[in-house]
Amino acid sequence: MKKALIFILCLAIPLAIGGLSGFATVTGIDSWYSSINKPSFNPPNWIFAPVWTTLYALMGVSLFIVWQSPASQFRTNALIIFGIQLFLNFCWSFLFFYFESPGLALVEIVFLWASILMMIFYFIKVKPIAGYLQIPYIIWVSFASILNAAIWHLN
């Protein structure tokens, strides 16, 4: 029973952060985002919610796997880096959509990408599957970085 509650908590943390940052996203999409220039490879708006929900769920699963692993310095570092990347993930939506600042968001997403890479490295050291589950996340953020840069360039 205790493991089930921890698993639910590990899922709830990134999903809740995603939900909160979704507020900034919806606010921006309904206002300025619909009127700015976007590159031809910009996905339709409906694709973002299911992709991000899946990625946040994968974060939660990886967090649970790492949390359940024996205590070590690598586990401690992995959990700290997880928190940092989740905070940067949260901030990006506000910078880009709420504050309407693709340039500042572009700078920030570079730090987010680097923190995801570090998280994957530490997760793999703790439990390889936890790190491998984050590969779709870094791929998506790589694409989002390119998209962010293109939007910044076009506007």
From TrEMBL:
GO terms for biological process: tetrapyrrole metabolic process. The chain crosses the membrane at residues 46-67, 79-99, 105-124, 136-154. The keyword Transmembrane applies. One of its GO terms (cellular component) is membrane. It is a multi-pass membrane protein. Keywords: Membrane, Transmembrane, Transmembrane helix. It comes from the Bacteria. It is found in: Membrane. The keyword Transferase does not apply. Belongs to the TspO/BZRP family. This is CrtK. It comes from Jiulongibacter sediminis.
